[in-house]
Design brief:
Elements: H1 18-26, H2 34-45, E1 49-52, H3 59-69, E2 80-83, H4 87-100, E3 109-112, H5 118-127, E4 131-134, H6 136-145, E5 155-158, H7 161-166, H8 170-178, E6 185-190, H9 195-204, E7 209-212, E8 223-229, H10 235-245, E9 250-254, H11 258-270, E10 275-278, H12 284-296, E11 301-304, H13 306-309, E12 317-322, H14 329-336, E13 346-352, H15 357-367, E14 372-373, H16 379-398, H17 404-417, H18 421-433, H19 453-461, E15 482-487, H20 497-508, E16 518-520, E17 525-530, H21 535-542, E18 545-546, E19 549-550, E20 554-555
Parallel strand pairs: 1-6, 1-7, 2-4, 2-5, 3-4, 5-6, 8-13, 8-14, 9-11, 9-12, 10-11, 12-13
Antiparallel strand pairs: 15-17, 15-20, 16-17, 18-19
Helix pairs in contact: 2-3, 3-4, 6-8, 20-21
């Protein structure tokens, strides 16, 4: 039962420690969110809490503020341990702790995750930290090495527990919990409560207070919602067509990770758009300047993560494009709420891959509104618009003053070279256009990379009554063609199948169910992946490190048997891929047969892939619009990559 609270409580009502309350007030926070109002009193009392709340409801402050208020600042050892599924979330939670503890002298918080140098983490842990926020794999490593000691631990927080379950960390979490003192306080937060999470709560939490926050999932009637089923064109080419054909004022494009904001902004700039990235690594003064430029029309397109765009209210925003589909309905509602505000009309466009259609249906059910399928603008429509814009540029230029001088130059050129005026005009037009072709070429659309797309289309053509009844989505034992690859890491490097699966699934964005046979040899390994892997993904994998070794993935030149991704372990994602050292086909961990899309969720507010040098983008089809002004560049701090996989050791 919830404690009795005022109708509109404020943070000063809770009895937070004075320095913590002062920091909150300095940040401008006055009224707590629902999850904060319900949870803070329980944690201040020292009770265990089992909280169900979605991302974006303010749960970080819900546990950080009361736990900080209970800190003993005379001690320098870890008193609070927070486990998070991804390095991105670990960093964000650590930053939140630092912000809320701004008035606590001598306070130290440390995020620990794979991919960061051990020596740096050793030095910080030896110096002393009161709060550790980490991913399960790296926390386990430090506990085994003895560099992280939990003798004085007061509180343990499991953040996004269902996501850690889905990623296969459940056994690691239980092992870590067994290393904590029996007197520690536990707060477990999860968006959903599958049986495995309930089992953990019953086993490890003592008489927990249960808090469940209902999420508002309504969308404004002024927003027109549409979706595009990702097939044929590459997503970037499709995005370019939409931006060319849609009459927009300003656009926010949502992606899952901070790294992707930078990469997509760079690629759109290469195609002539005034696009800028907005993510959690952007300094506050730069963020404010960017939003001001958006308001004034100096920037037309913002590429943002959910966290970075929170609270953004810019009247110019006419379109919201979900380049990456959100994995919870609340995030979708928050995203499209950036347009159609105060009675204004707006457009929301959602990119959906064939394997993400269940997420589309979930959004429609939660919002109680249908989302219409949109057709991409045809090549003819795009070309007609480009010609129209080109003609308008000529008309606008003819209306300007100062043409007399150029008229005299061209008349002289025409007399001296005996060239017709129309040919001179054509040469000047080509000079203005540059190397990029003005018009798109008609070309066949090759299917986007998706191992299951053919099977999905076949299933959609069936009548519902003819589907087999023993699977939520499909029970077909169909197979997909596989290709065998060689990677430069093996048994002598200490690698295990789980390391390989985690790295490939994380970096390629490939659901672990689509990773086939793994054969670990002494100094290399062989792994079967779906045939037709895109070159850019293989390029990312070549630079990925596992067990300290760069993968340097390349085709093995051997045949690989077709693979059935439906042969996966059950258990709602809590299973672990069996060892496949030296032969024997194992089953992937994952959400059971057909239960997860091939593109892995990147933790809602985002895990992320390693930074790499952005590549100049030029579409084979000439997907580049007439030149637009570029914004001034802004400095961007490289962001760490995600700590996904089971377990992933990028040391």
């Amino acid at each position: 039962m919830s404690p009795e609270i005022n109708t509109s409580p404020i943070f000063a009502d809770f009895g937070l420690a004075a320095p913590v309350l002062q920091a909150v007030q300095d940040l401008g926070y006055e009224t707590p969110s629902a999850i904060q109002a319900e949870t803070i009193p329980y944690l201040l009392e020292g009770r265990d809490v089992l909280g169900q709340a979605q991302t974006g409801t303010g749960k970080t402050a819900a546990f950080a503020l009361p736990l900080l208020s209970r800190l003993d600042m005379s001690k320098t050892g870890p008193q609070i341990l927070v486990l998070a599924p991804t390095r991105e979330l670990a960093i964000q939670v650590a930053e939140a702790f630092q912000k809320y503890a701004g008035k606590l002298p001598g306070f130290h918080v440390m995020p620990i995750y794979g991919g960061q140098d051990y020596r740096t983490q050793f030095r910080q842990l030896e110096r002393g930290v009161q709060v550790v926020v980490g991913t399960p794999g790296r926390v386990m490593d430090h506990l085994r090495r003895g560099s992280l000691k939990l003798d004085g631990l007061q509180a343990l927080v499991l953040d996004e527990a269902d996501e850690m379950l889905r990623m296969g960390f459940i056994e690691d979490i239980e092992w870590i919990m067994e290393q904590t003192p029996p007197t520690r306080q536990i707060a477990l937060f999860s968006a959903t409560m599958p049986p495995a999470i309930h089992r953990i709560a019953q086993s490890y939490l003592t008489n927990p207070a249960e808090v469940k926050i209902k999420v508002k999932t309504t969308t404004a009637d002024t927003i027109r919602q549409r979706y595009w089923l990702v097939s044929g064109l590459h997503k970037l080419d499709a995005l370019t067509r939409i931006l060319e054909a849609e009459p927009f004022d300003a656009v926010i494009i949502f992606v899952r990770t901070k790294t992707e904001t930078v990469e997509l902004a760079d690629r759109l700039q290469a195609r002539g758009y005034s696009a800028v990235a907005l993510n959690g690594d952007i300094p506050q003064n730069v963020r404010e300047r960017t939003i001001d430029q958006l308001k004034k029309g100096k920037i037309d397109i913002l590429i943002a993560t959910d966290v970075a765009a929170r609270g953004l209210d810019v009247e110019r925003i006419s379109h919201v494009i979900n380049y990456d589909i959100p994995t919870d309905t609340e995030s979708y509602v928050h995203r499209i709420g950036r347009t159609g505000r105060a009675g204004r009309s707006g457009d929301a466009i959602l990119f959906v891959s064939p394997r993400e259609r269940h997420l589309l249906r979930a959004i429609e059910r939660a919002t109680r509104k249908p989302i219409d399928l949109m057709e991409l603008p045809s090549t003819e429509i795009i070309n007609n618009r480009r010609i129209s814009l080109f003609n308008q540029r000529i008309t606008d230029t003819l209306a300007e003053e100062g043409l007399d001088f150029f008229s005299q130059l061209l008349e002289a050129y025409e007399r001296e070279h005996n060239v017709p005026a129309i040919e001179i005009a054509a040469a000047l037009a080509k000079l203005v256009q540059g190397d990029a072709p003005l018009l798109l070429e008609e070309k066949k659309n090759h299917p986007a990379y998706n191992p299951d797309s053919a099977r999905e289309r076949e299933q959609d053509q069936r009548k519902p009554g003819k589907r087999k009844a023993n699977s939520a989505f499909s029970s077909d034992e169909e197979t997909i063609p596989m290709e065998r690859f060689r990677i430069a890491v093996g048994r002598t490097h200490g690698v295990k199948p789980g390391n390989i699966v985690g790295a490939i699934a994380n970096e390629a964005g490939l659901d672990s169910r689509y990773i086939g046979h793994i054969d670990i040899q002494d100094d290399f390994s062989l792994v079967d992946l779906p045939a037709g892997m895109p070159k850019d993904i293989l390029g990312d994998l070549r630079r990925t490190r596992v067990a300290g070794q760069m993968l340097n993935i390349e085709p093995a030149g051997e045949s690989a048997a077709d693979y059935s991704p439906s042969r996966t372990s059950g258990g709602g994602g809590g299973g672990r891929r069996p060892e496949r050292d030296g032969g024997g086909r194992g089953r992937s961990f994952g959400g059971g047969s057909g239960s997860a899309p091939p593109r892995r969720r990147e933790a809602g507010k985002t895990g992320e892939r390693p930074d790499r040098r952005p590549r100049a983008e030029k579409s084979a089809g000439g997907e580049r619009p007439p030149s637009r002004p570029k914004p001034s560049t802004i400095s961007r701090k490289p962001a760490s990559d995600k700590d996904k996989g089971k377990p992933k050791r990028n040391d």
